[in-house]
User: Fold this.
Amino acid sequence: MAAITIDGIVMKFGAHTVLQGLSLQVPDGAFYTLLGPSGCGKTTLLRCIAGFNQPAAGRILFDDDDVTRVSAHHRDIGMVFQDYALFPDKSAFDNIAYGLRARKVSRVETASRVNEALEKVGLLSLAARYPAQMSGGQRQRVALARALVIRPRLLLMDEPLSNLDAKMRLQMRDVILDLVRDSHITTVFVTHDQEEALAMSDRIAIMDRGDIAQLGTPEELYATPVNAYVADFIGSANVIRVPVQPAADATAAGAAPCVRYTLCGQSFDGVAAGARPVGEGLLVARPEDLSLVPSATAASDAIDGVVVRRQYLGFKTAYRIRLRDASEIRVDQHAGGAAHEFRAGETVQVRIPAGSRVVAA
Ligand SMILES: Nc1ncnc2c1ncn2[C@@H]1O[C@H](COP(=O)(O)OP(=O)(O)O)[C@@H](O)[C@H]1O
Ligand SMILES: [Mg+2]
Assistant:
């Protein structure tokens, strides 16, 4: 078990700089996720931690050990890949035993540790099977057991669930979480699936073109995204360009600064997130934070619109509303409340909650 410190890592492939001075700290025993679209550098960063990529600058420490120049082989890491990477000519047992045999662990201890690992991933009865005789989920359990049986300092997982079908993906989330909680191992998990990241992580690092856009708990990222990129990547958000009035009132120290912005000719109070917007900002409003009221309502915190489309989705109804300036906004109304249902073509009012977030454009 170890804490990871990544300090100003620069990683280039030829003239192409993929990581530009990235820093991240993962505390001992924590489950951190790297989340971002394909090509943003998640695998590159994971391979730097593992020692398969040699960064051009920066340092990597496991606790106080500087491992930047230590070979992958000597970093004592368990790794799980999207494509399982099992030895096809070895049984489940021998795949898991491989790392122990390479470390000259005795026969008796190897057998007992492999059996214990097989039992933990629920595969004791399949010990003699070869990878080709197992399902994707079973193979990934073998890969997980193989990574953990050597009792590594860290566990690194690169999109381990991406090749599984939807149901198995959900099951494997629990298998992984049970195992890593059980062993208290520091884990860095890579995914491009935001729901997976939210469900599994202590903290998520949202990556954008080789850097970390925001690091936070799932709740922090969802409730307080620092920019439109993060807001749109975690959950979904309406991102609307709005004029912002100059800061009038200084806010109390520590409190988020207030921003006055204009939407469809009407003035609202929002909260500045991240860098303070000047002149113009982006209003970031989640569909579930907005609500619809009948157009006859005299609401001062609402703007006029027309229902373009209504989609009934069971647990919620998703509306697309055209505003007076011809832009569209999405509004979700959750089932269960006494919410009024609106028809396509109906004129409505969209309520914008006070304190909506406005980020720099
Ligand atoms: N071995 C390599 N040689 C050259 N370019 C690479 C190599 N590995 C990754 N890249 C480039 O680095 C960028 C980030 O890739 P990667 O880390 O695999 O992204 P992700 O895992 O987030 O999808 C991409 O532009 C990719 O083409
Ligand atoms: Mg990748």
Notes: The helical segments are 42-50, 92-102, 107-120, 136-149, 166-183, 194-200, 218-223, 228-233. The chain has a mean pLDDT of 93. The pocket of adenosine-5'-diphosphate (ligand 1) is lined by residues 13, 16, 18, 36, 38-44 (CB under 6 Å).
